[in-house]
Amino acid sequence: MTYHDTLTCKPWHLTILLPAEEILISDPRQTQAIIQRFAFLQSVDERFKRAFFEHTSLARIDVGQPICDEGMQCGHLALVTEGVARVYKLGENGREITLYRISGGESCILTASCIISGRPFPAFAVCEEPIEALVISSPAVKRWTNEFPAWRDYLFGLIGDRLGDVISVVEEIAFRRVDRRLAHYLLQRLEPTASDSLNITHQAIASDLGTSREVVSRILKDFEHQGLISVSRGSVCLKDRRGLAEKSHEH
Predict the structure, then answer these.
(1) Which helix (H) or strand (E) is 208 found in, with range?
(2) In Å, what is the CA distance from 66 to each residue of 37, 63, 85, 205, 210?
(3) What's the pLDDT tens digit per position in 192-229?
(4) Which of 2, 35, 7, 8 is nearest to 20 (CA)?
(5) Under a CB-based contact definition with an 8 Å cutoff, are residues 65 and 113 in contact?
(6) Rounded CA gap, 41 and 49, in Å?
(7) Which residues contact 189 (CB under 8 A, 6 or more apart)?
(8) Which member of 11, 68, 212, 213 has the greatest number of CB atoms within 10 A?
(9) Does residue 140 have a pLDDT over 60?
(10) Other Cβ atoms within 10 Å of 54 Cβ, number
């Protein structure tokens, strides 16, 4: 299959490659897979389901590509089926802080809220893992919000769930010491896996925690001296999970 048709999206504004023969989703197997991916589609009436698939396109985005810049108007909403995007703020000093990540079955609350309010996008977004997403134009998003309660409930539920994540980020930065946050971060990133090794740079950790690379490097070195971890280029290996858990709860 070749991909040569393009769609320019704002804030998903980069040129997104689309399958030439599948700009609109018509394959019944693909449609069913999408319904299984997004729970709200499993209980909607046929009129909304038909409107949804008639006005939804499939897009693919490569790793490292910018998805959105701060200050852009939101012309489309993307519902991610596969892959990961990172949404972050950038300070005047160049320091980044990750607000949240969007993965399969999720969408961006900032994009949704900006479409509803008409305000520009207040952050940045970048593709961390290859993304496949459903793209819906902002006029359709607004129209469905007024016409279909199931769609409105989905958007407001999305905003409510993610708002809690953003508040947690603010609390972490404002009220917890960086060493405790870093210990918790390392444990959290490896919790879903059986591995003790995390492939990540000091700068990437700093961006997620909203601090500087120098601070992260210093604390990692302290953890290493305490026997909690070992550090190599682009990798952190956990040696004492219990010790890190205790560190994350220190006063």
Answers:
(1) helix 202-209
(2) 25, 9, 9, 19, 20
(3) 666 788 899 999 999 888 888 888 998 999 899 899 99
(4) 2
(5) no
(6) 7
(7) 198, 200
(8) 11
(9) yes
(10) 11
